[in-house]
Amino acid sequence: MRSILLVATLLFSTLVFAQGGPYSVSETPLGTLVDDPAAAAVLEKHMPGSVAQLSQARDMTLVTVVAIFPGSVTDEQLEEINADLQALPAE
What are the residues whose beta carbons fall under 8 Å from the beta carbon of 86, sequence distance 6 or more? Predict the structure, then answer.
């Protein structure tokens, strides 16, 4: 049951957050986000003190981490983080 919920959450999140812009909470690996100072600042703004912990899941997306650890970040926070990441200038 948990795996079905995880798959459903990931599919829904990909549809919700698949937009243009340099980064996405559903598509961009956390390693990429924490390695970019501007993106890391967005994560730190919304999730203070979490950048070091998130860097340990470098190959996962934030949506995946949230699906594994429900309650760690709200859907509203994910939307806000995604919006801020989308607003970053493309390199």
Answer: 19, 20, 21, 22, 23, 24
Contact 43, 58 (CB under 8 A): no
Tokens matching residue 78: 């994910």
Residue 53 CB contacts under 8 Å (≥ 6 apart), including other chains: none
Coil, helix or strand at residue 67: helix
Give tens-digit pLDDT for 38-91: 999 999 999 999 898 888 899 999 999 999 988 888 999 999 999 999 999 876
Q: Residue 32 and residue 66: Cα distance in Å, rounded? A: 17
User: What six digits make up the tokens of 21?
Assistant: 């812009």
Q: What is d(CA 8, CA 54) in angstroms, rounded to the nearest whole number?
A: 22
Question: Whole-angstrom Cα distance, residue 31 to residue 60?
Answer: 8
Confidence (pTM):
0.75
